[in-house]
Design brief:
- Four copies of one chain form a homotetramer.
- Chain A is built from three helices and six strands.
- Chain A is 23% helix and 43% strand.
- With 127 residues, chain A is α+β, with helices and mostly antiparallel strands.
- Chain A is globular, with a radius of gyration of 14 Å.
- Chain A has a single domain, classed as Thiol Ester Dehydrase, Chain A, CATH 3.10.129.
- In chain A, strands 1-2-4-5-6-3 form a six-stranded antiparallel β-sheet.
- Chains in contact: A-B, A-C, A-D, B-C, B-D, C-D.
- At the A-B interface, α1, α2, α3 and β3 of A face α1, α2, α3 and β3 of B.
- β3 of chain C pairs antiparallel with β3 of chain D, so a sheet runs across the interface.
Chain lengths: 127, 127, 127, 127
């Protein structure tokens, strides 16, 4: 998993967004984002882009936890509940894998365990 | 459109991500993001979360350009091409509208006009 | 669950597609489709529309298993593997629920348990 | 376009669903479905699976109108309005193309030109 850790330590936008990789193992990854005032949008809830960035980061870590480099091709995200403070957690897990494509589901939850967003990502695996 | 401009001037995460609202009119909006080194991921291309945040911002501006407050419920984004430098532009346009739901397509292009990502957003319109 | 069973017994297109509702309970439903030659497309694999119809039917049953009428607003489906013969099974389960929206994941598998498609559906709950 | 026509003339599920390919040219395709009582669901509107099948068929025709065989990997569909009678039309057009992936948008409209569903499909292009 060292190559994954290395890749994600050099992800400057994730750093800029205050995201931290907590763990990664084959087909799984967890990331966190401690909410700051600058994560909010004009109606004082966490901006959708910040939530997406957290989920996408966990997805990318999980997708690259295997033997091939994987790049996101399509993502669908559903926002279930607004978040405002505390720490958000994204847990990515592989739901299907074939030589060319991997599919991952990421749940983003708040500190109370409430589901904030569900993210489904499809990654293309380079040969 | 003043309420939309006001809402987006107070979007702190969009500011943090270096995004600027260029124009908004009923059912349409354009936003830009001038790429900086901190927009990049661990493989030196623009991070997916940054591209999403730009597209989502244009989507939210277009969705709120009507008489009702609209919140994103579901978004699907397809990444077509990696971007590295220059300025990215997101153009959102309404493709369907009913009393409860609005659907928007956002094209994200680079300075050469190449399509970087296609974003389709569904917004729930509050009464 | 009788109103759900009644609704689905009158779903003529599902009948036309050879789909059968196996079980429904709050937040969950299972449906099956025994493959026939007319489920195939021009390259002799099960047509995507047939797989979608099966998954969508299980989703609709699960979404209507609660106290409100729910209608599909957005669905994302990822096709993982081609299917050709046997019986396909779709299992829908609720992953999130709030007063207005419900989110469901449906796994479509073949007789060997291989994942054929993953479906994520968002339903609007009428008041 | 003869190979596309041939492929779609042998699509048995599309035939079973009453779908007709109207036209195909590079990057575009149009299909129609004349609604019959058996296209309806348990609440007497056109079943989502029937609408998807129509849109998916136009998508597949457009995606295969180029020099490579293309298979659907991911689709997102948003249902905007219920349909009941008449003929539905699906118009697919290519919005982006690279050597591995093509993206297509399909609009499904009724006889009055109202938008019934918007479909966005991603196809993997085999080499």
């Amino acid at each position: 998993m060292d190559h994954v850790r290395h890749m994600f330590e050099h992800d400057l936008f994730a750093k800029h967004a205050g995201i931290e990789l907590i763990s990664v193992s084959p087909g799984q990854a967890t990331a966190k984002m401690s909410l700051q005032p600058w994560h909010l949008n004009g109606v004082n809830t966490v901006q959708g882009g910040a939530i997406f960035t957290l989920a996408d980061f966990a997805f990318a870590a999980a997708a690259n936890s295997r033997d091939k480099v994987a790049v996101a091709v399509n993502v669908s995200i559903t926002f279930m509940k607004a978040a405002t403070t505390g720490t958000l957690t994204a847990e990515a897990r592989e739901v299907a894998l074939n030589p060319k494509l991997g599919t991952y589901t990421v749940n983003v939850t708040d500190e109370q365990g409430s589901l904030i967003a569900i993210f489904q990502g499809l990654a293309y695996r380079k040969s």
